[in-house]
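Structure first, sequence second, as always.
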């Protein structure tokens, strides 16, 4: 009798444990933040995070916490495909905003949730050419249809030519607030936190686990942003110009190395560049340096420019992004160079860039404007000719210019032309 009671108690306990064991399976919900600019670094992080989440035997669903103004279409397409191909139930939680390329990522999940005060839309491609718009609209339409969403509503976020009565008029891009998205049944649930999202979707869970964003990804996102990359290039080129105009290695070279180091470092972290591309860039810098000390402009200069441009293009995520960055950097460099020439002489820091030597009598200078008697004379370079500088002839200091070549101090030069106060010299081999 006692044995029978013991067996009944054990059986009862076993039956109690069974449901609990079953409930412990597939009860973890993982959260993958999708924040900041959308680029390849973010794609690599999302792809790797999905692979790690899939290895959890107790995974129930994954939430993509989205807060972005957009970014690269190519990266958004890659992230979208990774989400669509996931074997786990997926939820996009628009936690503040999903603008531009963020729209495609949002609609790629099985469910859409939005936080109060959130927005989604304004997904026009940049540049908005017929080809790019056709591709982008087609991608949005395909994913929307695949996930059972209103494709016309989604595409109107990218194409201003689409008109939807009582929703959006022609000539404007659709951008929905959370309330508008709920009214149009575009979002499945409105909630202010993860728990509210899961409860609204009737998804049971035990733990909510947030996947950490590695520092490498955060740094790569910052350095490869469409705003910072052109600025880094510009600073690098400006520093290089300063260094070429100043003797020795100083502030200009340090700034240039730091800027270019951050530019290519970000590209490496994002997976755009490799050691070979950096080597091509360094070869370009060396060739330009050689050209700076050679007369005229020849093969070394052309080769240096080609190498630098090629390395920058290869270290970018797209040709369009590379060209845009180069154009912005070129304009900023020209502006900075003009400002240096204009205001540099008034600042001690730029004394090495623009010739600031004063022609004082006590220093041996002469105010005589007749210099024709120096024609054919030879002298020694006292200050680096860049191409302007100072030479010494028979104890007198003269301001001269070369035909375009840079000449270092201590070299013997010959006066080959005199035009009023302008004295032109040439290096004697």
């Amino acid at each position: 009798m006692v044995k029978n009671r013991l067996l009944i108690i054990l059986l009862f306990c076993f039956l109690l444990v069974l449901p609990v064991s079953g409930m412990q399976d597939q009860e973890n919900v993982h959260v993958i933040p999708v924040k900041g600019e959308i680029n390849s670094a973010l794609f690599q992080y999302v792809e790797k995070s999905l692979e790690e989440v899939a290895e959890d035997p107790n995974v129930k669903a994954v939430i993509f916490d989205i807060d972005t103004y957009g970014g690269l279409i190519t990266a958004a397409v890659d992230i979208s495909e990774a989400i669509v191909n996931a074997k786990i139930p997926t939820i996009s939680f628009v936690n503040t905003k999903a603008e531009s390329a963020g729209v495609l990522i949002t609609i790629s999940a099985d469910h859409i949730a939005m936080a109060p005060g959130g927005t989604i839309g304004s997904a026009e491609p940049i540049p908005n050419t017929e080809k790019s718009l056709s591709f982008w609209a087609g991608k949005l339409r395909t994913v929307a249809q695949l996930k059972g969403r209103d494709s016309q509503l989604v595409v109107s976020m990218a194409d201003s030519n689409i008109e939807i009565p009582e929703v959006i008029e022609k000539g404007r891009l659709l951008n929905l607030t959370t309330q508008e998205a709920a009214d149009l049944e575009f979002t499945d649930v409105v909630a202010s936190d993860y728990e509210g999202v899961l409860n609204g979707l009737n998804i049971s869970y035990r733990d909510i686990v947030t996947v950490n964003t590695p520092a490498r990804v955060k740094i790569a996102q910052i350095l490869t942003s469409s705003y910072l990359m052109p600025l880094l290039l510009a600073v690098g080129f400006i520093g290089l110009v300063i260094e070429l105009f100043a003797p020795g290695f100083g502030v200009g070279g340090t700034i240039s190395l730091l800027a270019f180091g951050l530019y290519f470092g970000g590209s490496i972290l994002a997976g755009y560049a490799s050691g070979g591309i950096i080597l091509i860039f360094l070869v370009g810098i060396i060739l330009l340096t050689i050209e700076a000390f050679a007369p005229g402009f020849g093969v070394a200069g052309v080769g240096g420019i080609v190498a630098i441009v090629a390395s920058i293009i290869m270290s970018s995520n797209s040709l369009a992004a590379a060209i845009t960055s180069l154009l912005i950097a070129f304009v900023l460099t020209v502006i900075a160079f003009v400002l240096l020439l204009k205001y540099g002489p008034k600042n001690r820091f730029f004394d090495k860039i623009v010739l600031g030597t004063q022609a004082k009598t006590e220093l041996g200078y002469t105010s005589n404007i007749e210099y024709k008697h120096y024609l054919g004379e030879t002298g020694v370079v006292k200050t680096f000719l860049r191409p302007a500088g100072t030479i010494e002839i028979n104890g007198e200091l003269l301001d001269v210019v070369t035909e375009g070549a840079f000449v270092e101090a201590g070299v013997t030069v010959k006066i080959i032309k005199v035009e009023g106060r302008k004295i032109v010299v040439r290096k004697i081999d």
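Margin note: The first strand starts at residue 28 and ends at 35.
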